[in-house]
Amino acid sequence: MLLLPFLEWCEGLAMSQAYRESLWLFAATQSLHLVAVTTFVGAISIVDLRLLGWGPVRQPRARLARSAQRILLWAGLAVLATGIPQFTVNALSYSRSPVFVFKMCLLAAALVFTATLRRRVAVADEGRLPSWVPRTVGAVSLALWMGVTITGRLITFYG
Amino acid sequence: MPSVVPALEWLEALAWTTAIRESTWGYPLVETAHVASIVAFAGLVIMMDLRLVGLAFTDAPPMQIQRRLFPWQMAGLALSTATGLLLCCVDPLRYYGNVFFRVKLVLLALAGVNAAAFHLTTYRRAERWEDDPQITATARLAAGVSLVLWSAIIVSGRFIAFNWFD
Question: Most-buried pick from A90, A105, B118, B150 (CB within 10 A)?
Fold first, then answer.
């Protein structure tokens, strides 16, 4: 299997070693990950609330979504930068954790949904779509991203 | 000065706090709900702060955004406060002795004072912002302080789990 050499390579990285030897590096990375996740989910939920018809409704959907996209990009990069080292340090045990694997599947689904359907609906002409379409997309998006957040927290408990 | 420790010991020994503390699901469930509601609450607060400091949603009047976010922010705050208090009741002595918990409480108090000062002064005059896209310097300052404080609250909250100094 190709996966095992990759996981071992991850754990052997100099960065992973540094994390294992430091008391505070892992803790600091996890905390910043949480701040980045909060910002990311904030930028997701302000648009999802708008899609649901509950957010800033006097703002055109497309304009709100485009402005939120910049935050998503920067916060997303910060989430990755703080998430990857957490994985490489514990690559072997994480790959065996059902909660971690489930989180990654949910994350993949959320990313695909956000980059395709949600994006098209958010920037579409507001008169063109029946109101149940943006409402459903907003609800699914919120559920997916809160699901990713919640399963992320659960890794520590049931990893 | 009388110590609060006996009261916390009494709280910890109660049947229902003991039951939650010792159950397999109780504690992780409450803790996870606490984290999820903070992410929902602080995420929307950060969006408003980014608008006020001028980093995002700059083509929308701040009041149009904040009025619609406010009920959701308050719902998230209510849920995170309720779950946070519950966690304190379940494991009071551990939190009482934890330095990061104490730091978090101080930061929460500061964030509360900052938010209250903003709502009672600048926010009250917010009607004029709609005509004037230039946001007052005070609002910008309050939003910057809020961004720093809420980030620090999240960090110190996460650090409670690392009981290095207990």
Answer: B150
Six-digit token string for A37: 């996740």
What pTM was computed for the model? 0.94
- Amino acid in the structure at residue B85: L
pLDDT at A159: 64
Listed by start position, the domains of chain B span: 5-159
Say how many C-beta atoms besides its own lie within 10 A of residue A62's C-beta: 13
Residue A90 is classified by DSSP as T
Contact residues, chain B, for A147 at CB < 8 Å: none
Nearest-CB residue to A45 (from B28, B40, B68): B40
Contact B142, B117 (CB under 8 A): yes
DSSP state string for chain A:
--HHHHHHHHHHSHHHHHHHH-SSHHHHHHHHHHHHHHHHHHHHHHHHHHHTT-S-TTS-HHHHHHHHHHHHHHHHHHHHHHHHHHHHHTHHHHHT-HHHHHHHHHHHHHHHHIIIIIHHHHHS-TTTS-THHHHHHHHHHHHHHHHHHHHHHHHHHH-
The interface predicted TM-score (ipTM) is: 0.93
In chain A, the residue whose alpha carbon lies closest to the alpha carbon of B162 is A27
Q: Do B38 and A38 touch (CB under 8 A)?
A: yes
Interface of A with B in 44-63 (CB under 8 A): 44-46, 49, 54-59, 63
Q: How far is B108 from chain A (nearest CA, A)?
A: 16
Chain A residue with minimum CA distance to B155? A31
pLDDT digits (tens, 9 = 90+) for A3-45: 899 999 999 999 999 999 998 999 999 999 999 999 999 999 9
Q: How far apart are CA A126 and CA A114, in angstroms?
A: 18
Is B39 in contact with A149 (Cβ distance < 8 A)? yes
